[in-house]
Sequence to fold (286 residues):
Amino acid sequence: MGNTENTLIPPGTVVVGIDGSPSSDRALDWAIDQAVRERRQLTLAHGIDPAGVAWTDPMGGSHRAVVDAMADDGRRLLADARAYVEIRQPDLGVNQTAWMADPRVTLLKLAEKASVLVVGSRGRGPVASLLLGSVGLAVVRHATCPVVVVRPGNPGRVRNGVVVGVDGGPSSRATVEFAYRQASLRQLPLTILHGIEEVWPPNATDDDLRISVTEPLTGLAEKYPDVTTRLELVREDAAGALVEQSRRMDLVVLGAHHGGRLSTLLTGSVALSVVEHAECPVAIVS
Fold:
């Protein structure tokens, strides 16, 4: 594994995966806006996997020549992306890095020091036809920083803010605080969607459930007084409710390691249902 750019990436940047696909272009736009809002630098990242080239061109081209061509292509993609950033936000600090490594390895390594990792929902490689490509799936499951998967949506549709899915446990706090911050940065309202577990007593009232959700979140409303919030209780199919809400939201936020019902989000079909079918960007907070 090597870094063909030999660029020292400072910690805390917004990292975005670049592969030249339309999905990657959408991710770049989102990452630019996020870096500007957060007043952070932007890092453009591209992975070149030489192990994925296991053939020799029938016209006589060597493996080395193919890898070199891939590296040239990667450098061109990064140069084009950087030029685009400079047009959109000329004062934004930009880093770029191309690694001779599987793109999944590249992004997961960069995620260790990133503030957030942004990827498109589909790539341009052999897995481009999948709803969520192998790179997106890997970083959603394993990244150590928040991951935003930028979904294609309807840009003309009126949006209603940020929605966050919680289970009421103590680990929900980091997820909800991320959602609060994103809502505050964008001056948007926040919907806290609580998926109710079957273990709740059948005679529990909505007030009991609301208290269970809000107790671990004490202080967040005071920390972000500019954010208007509402709590919504969902007794069935929390993932379906989030997908439905995404049709009118700017961002869906989910936690990666909760202990309740939503804890299955990243290990089973529920996660893919939200990340693959949402009609707005989806943030996964580890």
User: Anything to note?
Assistant: The chain is about 35% helix and 20% strand.
